[in-house]
Amino acid sequence: MEKIVISVDEVEHTACAVPEPGKPAARLPAPISWWAKACLSHLVLVLPLLCLVTILLRVATRGMPPRSRYAWVTFLSTLLIISGFLTSIAGVLVFTLKPSMPSVVSQALGACRS
Description:
Radius of gyration: 30 Å
Helix content: 55-70%
Number of helices: 5
Number of strands: 0
Strand content: under 5%
Distance between the termini: 112 Å
Order of helices and strands: HHHHH
């Protein structure tokens, strides 16, 4: 077996693959375009429709690279969480601010007193 000998000149002439310190690395393009985020963000107000779109997009993104698939999953999860909070708050407000059939309650109370 022969020994490999590397001279000082060979080491000095090799290009360094490590980026210079203080120099920012190149940014990758966003996996989700801004117009897709803007269009899908409006679905937050309609939770059932957002759920259907999420299912379809999860199936459609199966073949994408992991970085893109992860970006879609996190974006859709965020939209679903926000939509769930808004739907819960709206449901609570509807049931607490709206009187629950006052005419039926008052008739039942009147019938009990007679």
